């Protein structure tokens, strides 16, 4: 299994694949309660749990990292333009 370091540069990309599994009614209810408490839907929790188990970081963390990287690149490009003008 890959270590979390392997996924440091993981670009999230477009979500196109479905993950299907079966839960007990009790687990389903627990997830629904947690989702309500977190102001999200159960799918968000499932996705974060899967990403956390596989990569060591949640989907939300990967999205935030992608956004930070994009803003950093944009800032570097704009900073370079100002220096040459």
Mean pLDDT: 82
Helical percentage: 55-70%
End-to-end distance, in Å?
49 Å
Q: Give the biggest sheet.
A: none
How large is the share of residues in beta strands? Answer: under 5%
Rg is: 18 Å
The total count of helices amounts to 3
Uncertain segments are none
* Element-level helix/strand string: HHH
**What is the approximate shape?**
elongated
- Class of secondary structure makeup: mainly alpha
General description of the model:
It is a single chain. The protein has 85 residues and is mainly α. 62% of the residues lie in helices and 0% in strands. The chain is built from three helices and no strands. Helix 1 crosses helix 2. The longest helix has 26 residues. The chain is elongated, with a radius of gyration of 18 Å. The termini are far apart.
In short:
The protein has 3 helices and no strands. By secondary structure, it is mostly helical.
Structure keywords:
85 residues, mainly alpha, 3 helices
List the helices and strands and how they pair.
Blueprint: H1 25-37, H2 42-55, H3 59-84
């Amino acid at each position: 299994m890959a270590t979390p370091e392997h996924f440091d540069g993981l670009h999230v990309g477009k979500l196109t694949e479905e993950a299907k599994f079966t839960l007990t009614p009790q687990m389903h209810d627990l997830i629904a309660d947690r989702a309500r408490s977190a102001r999200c839907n159960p799918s968000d929790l499932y996705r974060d749990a899967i990403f956390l188990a596989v990569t060591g970081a949640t989907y939300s963390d990967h999205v935030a990292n992608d956004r930070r990287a994009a803003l950093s690149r944009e800032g570097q490009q704009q900073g370079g333009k100002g220096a040459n003008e």
